[in-house]
Amino acid sequence: MKRIRHFLNTLQTNWSEDPAARGAAKMTAGAVLVAEGLFGVARGAANRVRGRRKNGPGGLLGGIISVCVGVVVIGIGLFMAPEDLPDQVNTQGEIVDVESRRNSEGQTMHTPVYAFEVDGREYRFSAMGSSSVRPTIGQSVDIAYSESDPRNARRTDGIEGAFHWIFIGVGALVVVTALFSLAISVALIVLGIMLFRSGRADRKAAGETGSFFSDLMSIASKASSGEIDVEQTAVGQPGSSQGNPQSA
Minimal CA–CA distance to 161: which of 80, 58, 52, 47? Predict the structure, then answer.
C-alpha cells in the first residue's frame, strides 16, 4: 500500500513556479520512484532511518523472486496431486482404527486406518499422514480404489484428499500478489523516469545541465543510503508544495 501511496502522492504534488527549484524537486522525486520501483530502496532507506530492518528484496527483484517461489509451490502441489486411476471407482468407507505413536518431541500422533468393502470383501489401508487430533472411529470417508486391484486405494475427501490443493492455492495467491507488485514497480519506474526527464528539462531551461544517468544514479544512491529523506520529497508528501532548492 505504501508503494501505491508514493505513486499517488507524486501525482498530487503542487510543483514550484521556479524552474530550477521545480526541476531539482522533480528529479529527486523521479529518482526516488525509480529506485523504489527497481530495488525497493526508498522504503529500505526509510526503515533504516527509523531503526527498522527491511525484510527481503523489494521492487522488480522482489516481485520476480516471489513469482518464481509461487510457481515452485504450484509445481509441488501438482507433483503431489494423485493421478486418477484408469479404472477408478468411488465408494464410501469409514475409519475403523487409529494407530498412535509419539514423535521426536514426545507428542502423540494419530494415524487413521480406513476400511471399505468390494464384493463383500473388506480392504484396509492407513492414511499417509498423522495428526495430533485423534480421529473419530466410525466416521464416514470418501474412498477411491482401482477396480482391478482394490488394494490400490486412497482417501479423496478431507485434508488428506485436498492437501495438494493447499499448495496450488497458496502458490497461485503468491503469483497473483507478485504480479500485482510487479505492475506497481513498473508504474513507479515509468512515472519516475517521466518525472526525472521533466525535471531535467526544467533545469535546462534555467541554464543548468548535467548527464542524465549520472544525475539519476546520484540521487538514487542518496535515496538508498538515507541521505535523502523520502518523506520530504513528492513521494512522501501528498499535494504539498514541492520545489524548495534546499530540501531538494
Answer: 80
Determine contact, residues 220/28, Cβ cutoff 8 Å. no
Give the distance, in angstroms, between the CA of residue 123 and the centroid of all CA atoms in the same chain: 44
Q: Which of 12-26, 92-106, 108-122 has the lowest mean pLDDT?
A: 12-26
Nearest-5° Cα angle at 61, 58 to 62: 45
Q: Where are the domains of the chain?
A: 2-72+167-242, 88-151
CA 146/CA 234 separation, integer angstroms: 66
Cα distance between residue 180 and residue 63, in whole Å: 9
- The whole-model pTM stands at 0.66
Using an 8 Å Cβ cutoff, are 160 and 112 in contact? Answer: no
In tens, the pLDDT along 148-197 reads 999 999 999 888 888 889 999 999 999 999 999 899 889 888 988 888 88
